[in-house]
Known about the structure:
binds pyridoxal-5'-phosphate, three-stranded antiparallel beta sheet
Amino acid sequence: MNKLTDQLIFEVSRPGRRAYSLPTNDVETVSLEGIVPTHLIRQKAAELPEVSELQLMRHYTNLSNKNFGLETGFYPLGSCTMKYNPKVNEDIARYSGFANIHPLQSPETTQGALELLYDLQEYLKAVSGMDAVSLQPAAGAQGEWTALLLFKQYHEQNGDGQTRRKILIPDSAHGTNPATAAICGFEIVEIKSNEDGTVSVDALKEVVGPDTAGMMMTNPNTLGLFEQNIKQIAEIVHEAGGLMYCDGANSNAILGLSQPSTMGFDAVHFNLHKTFSTPHGGGGPGSGPVAVKEFLRPYLPVPHIEKEDDKYVLNSNYPQTIGRVKGYFGNFGVNVRAYAYIRSMGPDGLRQVSEDAILNANYLKARLEPYYDTPYPQVCKHEFVLSGTRQKKLGANTKDMAKRLLDYGFYAPTVYFPLIVAEALMIEPTETEAKETLDAFADAMIEIAQTAEENPALLNEAPHSTPVKRLDETTAARKPIVKFER
Ligand SMILES: *Cc1c(COP(=O)(O)O)cnc(C)c1O
């Protein structure tokens, strides 16, 4: 890194330098006076950086080189399924027939796009075992929200809307679950987990009842463990008149191996941007379709994309619908990518995705177990959770170890989540990583565990090799400096 590449573009700037050359203006210059309100007319030129085209190019290329992404290195961020996004998906999403159509075009002129969406719904039905799908929700959290609105509508139609006010949620759940239930106006009842990390059936029996609207579960759960009692849990909730919701963010562990429908769920959301390999991170766009059992179909968002003879149509004739949850057809481009991914993998390929994801996670877990506390030693699914308590006692906590991983060129795992594990390190390698990459990561984690014993101070001050060293996160959040001062 030399001085030039570390400079801000404002520091590189010199008055009068330009990255463009436009032809001379041959039309009359028009004054804004009388057209734009006076207080909105700029009195002096904007203070934009003035640089040459080459300086501009270098600035942004160097900036992007400082970014860490899936395509620069291993990204084992638990729960987020940071798998490789094949480039063929990108090519297909950019086909002009998909990229240049307008969502308000009449269905007669967009039959191909509607066919793709219809087929994607069919694939998601096959994967989940459910009967109907809406592609509208733009993210996992919006899928959760859509499904809980369906539950609410179902209870209201049954005259139970006033009494069924409670949603049961395990203490290992992702934060979006209680947030979703709260936003839908439900009361949240937390269910304790057993010592082995799965939901306690006894704790469930104590709280389930006529006021239960439903239960939100993740399977495999956020500890990467398959809920052994899932069928019994679903029976208990159903017997009490409640509905079962599956947070499907962990579907990467069960493709072709198990289905939310057979587990007893009534609705599930998918994170196409996780499981079905469309790029994510940085806030979107995503896609969080919901799949439901037949009895919930009438409440799904409209319009439904349906097939009549050999034509694809938009059907809004569902009087009990919860209405629209997103403009047009959801995030269409994300849906195209997921479709391309599913088509290129095929059913056998998708099953192998999950088998390899599970194998990779268990391999890494086996290599790290001797060096880190492993609160849940049983065989895991696509991810697992370690605890940094042993190292914390030596003077280096989980945050220190996560920061140190950056020095080795790895993205850090998810840390301090799930909340029920002290000093949690949640690791999800995904199926797309080679054994050599997993080994290099394991070697780094083992070295870090040794550093915690020999020289914890080195960890406390990490990272040492990144362009920006350890930040004071509180000050950065409370008093951010976001403006360059000369
Ligand atoms: C990612 C995730 C969500 C939320 O999905 P978004 O698409 O980020 O809104 C919900 N639950 C679990 C378990 C997740 O991993």
